């Protein structure tokens, strides 16, 4: 019954008008445009506070019914990282040697990827993002609404926050990823979404020579 619904409570919007909007937008773009997926990491230590602030930033993302259906598991233990690497490489071997189509492999050839994932042990942190697909409240189970979209937005904000903090990242999605749920002892309601190694790039790090689409290719005004 709608009579049992919680009361709507509104508060004033905390919105700050800023000056030099175009300049700030351009500077933000230039900063994010330097972000690249990195596979050559240094093992240099990273202050945990940087990771915490980035995750807090990701946690400000909008979500369906404000259920905030995300869990960010930060892995720094060497043995756990080793287990994750070994499990990921087993799945990736199967993908590169049978699961992926020839067209898919041709696309990946320009990126230089394969089943070997040493960065999973070298990077000082792995952030494993889980999507919470249901919640329990008052003895009843309820799905989280638009959880896939919500977590995707949060991950985008996380990557931007980590780059803004001067850190390198990689979005790694071995498939299937159930091993992350098992190794990290997460409940069945938490579904692995993405695995993000985080740290400083190696001094000799290199990235593929790729181009981003132009504004005209990604925007349309109607």
Helix content: 25-40%
Ends: how far apart? 42 Å
Write down the overall geometry: globular
Radius of gyration: 20 Å
Kindly report the spatial arrangement of strands forming the biggest sheet. Answer: 1-2-6-5
**SSE order:** HHEHHHEEEHEHEH
How many strands, which pairing sense, and closed or not: the largest β-sheet? 4 strands, antiparallel
| Alpha-beta classification | alpha+beta
Instruction: Tally the beta strands.
Output: 6
Strand content: 15-25%
Fourth-level CATH superfamily:
NADH Oxidase
> pLDDT below 50 for ≥5 consecutive residues: which ranges?
none
What is the subunit arrangement here?
Answer: single chain
CATH domain topology: NADH Oxidase
CATH class: Alpha Beta
User: Helix tally?
Assistant: 8
Query: pLDDT average, as an integer?
Result: 96
> What is the number of independent domains?
1
CATH architecture: 3-Layer(aba) Sandwich
How do you describe this structure in short?
By secondary structure, the protein is α+β, with helices and mostly antiparallel strands.
What does this structure look like?
- The chain is α+β, with helices and mostly antiparallel strands.
- It has helices at about 20-35, 50-60, 80-100, 100-110, 120, 145-165, 180-185, 215-220; strands at about 70-75, 125-130, 135, 140-145, 170, 190-200.
- The chain has one domain (about 40-200): NADH Oxidase (3-Layer(aba) Sandwich).
- It is built from 8 helices and 6 strands.
- A hairpin with a 2-residue loop joins strand 3 and strand 4 (about 140-145).
- The longest helix is centred in the middle third of the chain and has 22 residues, at about 80-100.
- The termini are far apart.
